[in-house]
User: What shape does this take?
Amino acid sequence: MDRVNPLSRLKAVGARAEPASEADVLAGLLQRAGRGDQAAFGELYDGVSALVYGIVLKVVRDPSQAEEIAQEVFVEIWRLAPRYDANRGSVKSWIATVAHRRAVDRVRAEQSHRDRNDVVGRQLERDHDSVSELVLDRLDRTRVLNALDILTQDQRAAVELAYFGGHTYREVAALLDTAEGTVKGRIRDGLIKLRDHLGVNQ
Amino acid sequence: MTNDLHHLAAAYALDALDESERREFEAHYPSCAICSAEVSDYRETAALLAESATTSPPADLKDRLMAEIGSTRQIAPILPDRVVDLAERKRRNAPRQRVLALAAAAVVAVVGFLGGLQVARSGDDLDDVLVAVDAETLPLEGTAGNARVVWSPSEDRAVLIASDLSDPGTGRAYELWLIDAGGPNATGLFRPDADGTVRIQLDLDGRSPAAWGITNEPDTGSDQPTGEILLIGEIA
Assistant: This one.
């Protein structure tokens, strides 16, 4: 696989990952929302709310907390809409980034709060098995999950624990009892493999 | 070190860096073509992972959200568009009447803003700008700390006073931009003191600002802003 020009690959992934029309529609809605168009923002919400709520729920687990965070995410998207830069990636990618970051920050803030207050119970909350089960029980999302199948078991565990579990790679290393550098490499190799696979199979 | 940072793009895109590494990487990647391409690349991939988890939110979320955005102000657009707008307006308002600040008022405003910061000694060069009869003062708004620019056309100099600025990162610095009809002009490169404060004097070189902005740049400086605008103030 060529690593020479990641940018051209990105374009290939972006173009093939979702129908151009959907990406264009979302970009148009976001642009209008950026000019203060609330109706356009409402339509944008309809298009991506399941994406936002889904990933937030996956990370934080608690539905009422996920709902609260999802609302914050959308307010943030509304606020930042005038600054969306299409050159940096698709609308979905940007929104998923905002949502995931917000969910992870919440989980970590609570984690560190717990760590401070509960020195004895410094156990990471989510273990590997439960995350894998959660991921596996959604086998109907075939495309991505098929793509996850192409990863080695180790890569898959690292990617899932990091992204769906909301863990840092250091935490993932501790959970898997593996060297940090190794986990970092698995995450990277796993993502490259997924990127290439998702890019060529659409 | 740079090589290590390059290898963080994937973990960064999954939000799998801890706080300090995240900050370090964020200071690095916008100016690194390889890393920024990888970050967007991996973020697209992550978004597809997110799509495997889609779940419809409760129906009433939308109503609450729409009510909230109705009363939420949107942020100003980023610099490039903004520069064009400002440059445009500057051209139109070329002979714009300048609001003169009284020396006493400027001193009060500056001292008030300084708060706990050390106030310049009398006779200090900085004071010449701060108390100049035509001194103008403008707070910059944004996400990184507090900053204010005071400048005086007659002195042809500006003073930047800032607090609560984070470390710009290894090999990085902040850059102050004077934005006029010709676009952004690099006016000064600086790093905050250990306590996050900045107090520097800069030359206007005869330029008349329509806005001031601060970005994070390589510590060798940039001709044009490459980082995201962190703080900006537009002259009314």
Confidence is low (pLDDT under 50) at residues 80-86, 93-124 of chain B. Chain B has two domains: 1-73, 79-234. The CA atoms of residues 55 and 177 of chain B lie 45 Å apart. The first helix of chain B runs from residue 2 to 6.
